[in-house]
Specification:
alpha+beta, 43% helix, four-stranded antiparallel β-sheet, 8 helices
Length: 531
């Protein structure tokens, strides 16, 4: 076993070397950390880094943000991340992002840039002043050293309204409404009302460029009446003949969305439109048309209806020229002076009295005529009753005569039929007797003929004929059975006798000869039974 010893001096040298490199590593780490924090900057979420150039060309007059190579705060900012920033050339500053809340719009004002030309209000990119472009809701990295952002409510058009747009910037013209050209495009370099409207919704519009006027559209009613609440004064005019007339009327009208820019440009709000179009035209047309009719015309149904139609058609035509659509104009009441109504009533009462007296005279005359007619009717009824009785008696006599004649004819026909029946019955009896006699005669002839034929068949053999006659009288169901019991027996004697003959029915099997193996034989016979 070998044991090696390290000299003490060598061990101390290795400790010194390790300690030296540990100090170097620690110094390097400290140096790295100090260098990293000096040259690198971390931008957290929701913030941005603004760099200030310490050296470079001076900024042009009117500018507050520097471009690369210029001295001052740089226009471009750095977003969320680690960024290398040379501390000798730049100085960094963390600033929060600009947030635009929901339902708001951000208006950006450039603090520096090129000055605006004379007459311009909104600035484009690179110009100083309020920028044309706005910021919708969201978060933005905007260098607040060169820009200022203010929030304003977004433009909201509620349901039942449209937004009429009026451009606030541009060149001045005589016409307030900007008309589109032949191609349908709209000049965007003029002040005035735009021909298009905004439908209900939320819009992010620069209020310094476009003023949006929410205007109510739809169908409205305007009432002209003396007694109704929230109604305009009734329509008054002087009729033909110099009588003052007052009428109550209700007008139903509508503003179409495409007509609203023209109306707002000319009159302003909906109430001004109602006042300057509906109210003005209704009173004017009522006076013009009413002066053409007299009081009697306004009381009569047909002419009053014509006044209603003329008033409505003229109002529709006049308002259509003002871009307002009238659907109906209903006259509900016509107020006529009481003094004239008394005269009319007195005149009508006198007329009605005259007509009543005439009606009474006609009624009296009619009553007399009715009484006379009743008497004539009663007389006619009596005449009809007498004539009816006479006709009934005449018909009764004719019925009795017809019945007697009919009974006599029936009796005569009955006797004639009975005689004919008796004659036919006698003829039937005679013919029946003759037929029976002829049948008996034919039957006897047939019998004699059959007997003669039988005698001819048997040729004088009396004994054979006798057997045949006997067989004819036997029962057809009779059966004769003969049994063989051995030689010399009754069977043998019978069959061996020459004088014994059996007459079998036609088609019966012949009797077996003696000595054959059959045990029995059965044969139907016609003749006397065996003894």
């Amino acid at each position: 076993m070998n044991i090696r010893f390290t000299p003490p001096r060598r061990i101390e040298r290795w400790k010194w070397i390790l300690g030296f490199w540990a100090v170097v590593a620690l110094a390097s780490l400290v140096t790295f950390l100090v260098t990293w924090n000096s040259f690198f900057t971390y931008v957290p979420p929701g913030q941005h880094l603004v760099l200030l150039a310490k050296d470079g060309a001076p900024l042009p007059p009117g500018h507050v943000l520097a471009e690369p190579g210029q001295k001052g705060p740089l226009k471009e900012v750095l977003g969320e991340a680690w960024h290398f920033v040379l501390p000798i050339a730049y100085e960094g500053k963390l600033e929060p992002n600009t947030s635009i809340a929901a339902g708001q719009v951000g208006i950006v004002t450039a603090l520096g840039g090129e000055p605006l030309p004379p007459g311009m209000v909104l600035a484009e990119q690179g110009q100083q002043g309020i920028q044309r472009e706005v910021l919708p809701p969201g978060s933005y990295r905007i260098n607040l050293h060169g820009f200022k952002v203010t929030e304003a409510p977004a433009t909201e058009i509620p349901v039942g309204f449209v937004g009429v747009q009026r451009r606030l910037v541009g060149r001045e013209t005589d016409a307030e409404l900007i008309e589109p050209d032949a191609a349908g495009s709209v000049d965007d370099d003029r002040k005035g009302f735009l021909p298009t409207v905004l439908q209900p919704g939320l819009y992010y519009i620069n209020p310094h460029e476009i003023d949006v006027i929410p205007s109510e559209v739809g169908i409205f009613q305007t009432t002209f009446s003396k007694g109704a609440s929230q109604a305009r004064p009734p329509i008054t005019f002087t009729s033909r003949g110099g009588f003052p007339i007052s009428i109550d009327c209700t007008v139903e009208w509508e503003i179409l969305p495409e007509d609203m820019p023209q109306l707002v440009a000319e009159y302003g709000s909906r109430s001004r439109i109602e006042e300057n179009v509906i109210d003005l035209q209704t009173h004017a047309i009522g006076r013009d048309k009413g002066s053409e009719y007299g009081i009697i015309d306004l009381l009569e149904g047909a002419k009053r209806r014509k006044f209603q139609d003329d008033f409505t058609s003229e109002l529709m035509k006049a308002c259509a020229e003002k871009h307002v659509t009238v659907h109906s104009a209903f006259i509900r009441n016509i107020d006529i002076p009481e003094t004239y109504l008394e005269q009319v009533r007195d005149k009508q009462l006198a007329t009605q009295k005259t007509l009543t007296n005439k009606a009474k005279e006609a009624t009296a005359k009619t009553t007399a005529e009715v009484e006379e007619a009743k008497q004539m009717v009663e007389l006619g009824v009596k005449k009809v009753e007498a004539e009816t009785k006479r006709l009934v008696a005449l018909l009764d006599g004719q019925v009795e005569n017809l019945q007697a004649t009919t009974e006599g004819n029936l009796e005569q026909m009955r006797a004639k039929n009975e005689a004919e029946v008796a004659m036919l019955e006698g003829e039937r009896s005679r013919l029946t007797g003759e037929a029976e006699a002829e049948a008996q005669k034919l039957k006897e002839t047939a019998r004699s003929t059959i007997a003669r034929m039988k005698m001819d068949i048997f040729r004088g053999e009396g004994q054979s004929f006798l057997r045949y006659a006997l067989a004819e009288e036997l029962n057809p169901d009779l059966r004769l059975r003969l049994f063989q019991s051995g030689p010399g027996t009754f069977w043998t004697n019978m069959t061996g006798s020459e004088g014994m003959n059996l007459l079998l029915q036609p088609g019966a099997a012949p009797l077996p000869a003696p000595g054959k193996p059959e045990a029995s034989a059965t044969a139907p016979l016609k003749g006397p039974p065996a003894q």
